[in-house]
Design a protein that fits this description.
By secondary structure, the chain is α/β, with parallel strands linked by helices. 32% of the residues lie in helices and 15% in strands. It is globular and about 55 Å long. It is built from six helices and five strands, in the order H-E-E-E-H-H-E-H-H-E-H. A five-stranded mixed sheet has the order 1-2-4-3-5.
Length: 220
């Protein structure tokens, strides 16, 4: 090695400094506003970017698993495209901003990001398992998962027509949709909506594909 200290990363790093630069870019845009949903257990801000003026409410969250840095690279690309200056913005982004109001959280787990955790927040909670009660396990809570607690409170207040949770995968080298087949109200309507979304995504972006994904959960 050419130096006494060498750093290795599992995925392409997305530093907290770059996260702050991304939030600052959004703050400077006349087409968005940045809010603080609340604080993490380490006292960091849970940043929310609101963009668009349409009646449909679209939530896009990233990096619940903080080590899956691909998710925040996705957030950066999404926000740069939506918030491009009006004379540079493409037609699809302009259309979506009229149809939808976007609620975008670039990093759900900033504590885990700074601490170098792969899947958990400051006290070892996997936020991806904190979105509802499971038997006697009550979730989310301010003591264990304030990131999800504050997000759900705001989501309940604003409403939600579309929800996308962006992750990165350790083994599948593809962009893919992991669907909602396992939810209790899965049926023809949700199946149709999911198919429309997935196929439209693949048509709009050549980096998306539909052949490879996780095996779907059993209904219910």
């Amino acid at each position: 090695p050419e130096a006494d200290v060498v750093w290795f990363a599992f995925f392409a790093p997305y530093s907290f400094e770059r996260h702050n630069d991304l939030v600052a870019m959004c703050s400077s845009s006349s087409d968005a506003k940045v809010e603080q949903l609340g604080n993490t257990l380490d006292g960091r801000a849970i940043d929310l970017v609101v963009a668009g003026s349409g009646p449909l409410k679209c939530w896009v969250i990233h990096r619940q698993h903080p080590g899956e840095t691909q998710a925040e690279w996705f957030a950066e690309g999404l926000l740069e495209r939506l918030l491009a200056p009006a004379w540079q913005r493409d037609g699809l982004a302009s259309s979506l901003l009229k149809q939808m109001t976007f609620y975008i959280i670039p990093n759900m787990c900033p504590d885990g990001s700074v601490r170098g955790h792969l899947r958990t927040n400051a006290i070892g909670t996997n936020l991806n398992r904190e979105w509802g009660d499971t038997g006697d396990y009550k979730a989310p809570t301010l003591a264990r998962s304030p990131e999800v607690f504050h997000t759900l409170q705001r989501m309940d207040r604003e409403g939600c027509d579309c929800f996308v949770d962006v992750h990165g995968d350790e083994t599948l080298p593809y962009n893919f949709i992991s669907g909602m087949e396992g939810v209790k109200n899965w049926g023809p309507r949700l199946q149709g909506l999911q198919g429309i979304f997935t196929n439209a995504f693949a048509r709009a972006n050549s980096d998306m594909q539909i052949e490879k994904s996780y095996d779907p959960d059993a209904p219910g």
